[in-house]
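Hey,

Quick one before I head out. I ran the complex with SN-glycerol-3-phosphate overnight. Inputs first:
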Amino acid sequence: MSYRPRTDVPRLIAHRGASAVAPENTIAAFEAAKRLGASWVEFDAMLCADGTPVVIHDETLRRTTGTDGWVAETSLADMQRLDAGRWFSEEFAGARIPTLADALEALGRLGLGANVEIKPATGHEERTGKVVARHLARDWPASLPPPVVSSFAVPALRAAHAEAPGLDYAPLLEMIPDDWRAHLDAVGAQALHCNARRLTEGRVREVTGAGAAVRCYTVNDARQAKRLFARGVASLFSDRPDLLPAVA
Ligand code: G3P
Ligand code: MG
């Protein structure tokens, strides 16, 4: 089977927003990405205790809010009282953890496309996939290109696909395994997302030779970016969209 990936995903996608210059996974990071020239962002979506999808990477609140607690055990009201900017710098004090709805509103306002990574808390994989997919299928801004929906969590991605088969899915893999076709075919995907450091030349040739796209995280160095593009990698996730002029 030959794959036919979409062609409207840009070469560089701002990872967690422009997370080198603003606190990751905040609206401020999306705004910074836009200002630095990015046309897409990647962000992580997890369910908090009442089942609302929120934009956060870690299962715990410690690193990005300085508070103890688990996202999956914290109510939305309590999450929204937390400061998700001060850990990064005083300049961003008061930044909030966005809900997925907040994020979609900001993307629509800024005209930014996105890769939404489903990031389930452990034990909440299927529910997270289902809720995030339902939300995206229902509320994605019509003015934007359709999102790419990815996840490391196979049960989450499969549950998302079952809930909203019309969305565009991309399996996220630390390293592309021998059975990469099965990962693509399970969710009708045309692209794989993987760790740039674990990608071999042979594997990228094999996958792109079958027509599928390879997108890599996280690349913050222009020389590494150029090397990966030369090997046939289609897009890179970078904390530094200011690299754009040097690589795209
Ligand atoms: O989606 C690409 C990348 O974000 C995956 O890793 O841990 O940064 O979410 P992580
Ligand atoms: Mg991510």
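The pocket of magnesium ion (ligand 2) is lined by residues 42, 44, 117 (CB under 6 Å).

Talk tomorrow,
K.
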